[in-house]
Description:
This protein is of the alpha+beta class.
Amino acid sequence: MASIASSSCSSGVGIQSRGIAGGASSLTQFNGLRPIDSIQLSPSITSPPAFLSSSARKSKGTVRAMASPAVSAPKRENDPKKRVVISGMGCVSVFGNDVDTFYNKLLEGQSGITLIDRFDASDFTVRFAGQIRDFSSVGYIDGKNDRRLDDCWRYCLVAGKRALEDASLGSQVLETMDRTRIGVLVGTGMGGLTAFSGGVEALVQKGFKKMSPFFIPYSISNMGSALLAIDTGLMGPNYSISTACATANYCFYAAANHIRRGEADVMVVGGTEAAVIPAGIGGFIACRALSHRNDEPHKASRPWDSDRDGFVMGEGAGVLVSFRVVH
């Protein structure tokens, strides 16, 4: 998922000040403690706002704010017991399940955003997304589970197992390791949205007796980490984080801290998403978050452009294998 809001948002604060001679008050906006502009308030507004400190309320002068100090990059960690490195990568994307292919497509500037054909989107005001086609889980998920699983978890399992392979941690190698020291932390913003949508539809149309027994387990957001751990026998820290578009970043941070604190030697960590379905697209249209560039979908994703008009829905998974240099 990308950003929920398409327009720029200021997290500034407002500080009210009264002139020494009394009269009209002014409201100065600060963005990161840098003044942006001043807004003249009505003379009738005389009481200081509640969020000001007691000392600020007593002051008759202008309330001043200092500019934010320059922030330097964090220093490189030199303690080998705390240094965390990446040894394997796996992905599922619109360009396939190969990391090198995915990276080369990025370098070529090729867009994977196309018109949706998974369902009839002709009546939707947004008709494009980063839809995955011809996905194959052969060699990674058995046939029965492949038919039952939500795409969100299928993508997670394939990306996770490919990352382990890339790190030379196949099943035979894992059997020789202490798997209680290997954790899994794969987050998702939406979870098993297809399973959830299908369960609600069955409930409304046919009643609760026709709901799938997998409705709950395949809808909840921690199922990606759980399934990957069950399939590989990993018994270290296991849970998920869901923080919308920042989900995977928070997972990477949390996984690194598990390793630094000595709670795990290896962490399989990443994010997975599969929300290109009517409920997913329709829901984001309803909150006016998506770009409407149906005539040029390959140019629609432009997060830092002054002409941006929303984000673009996509799907896939990305998983890394990280470990401590010395363990």
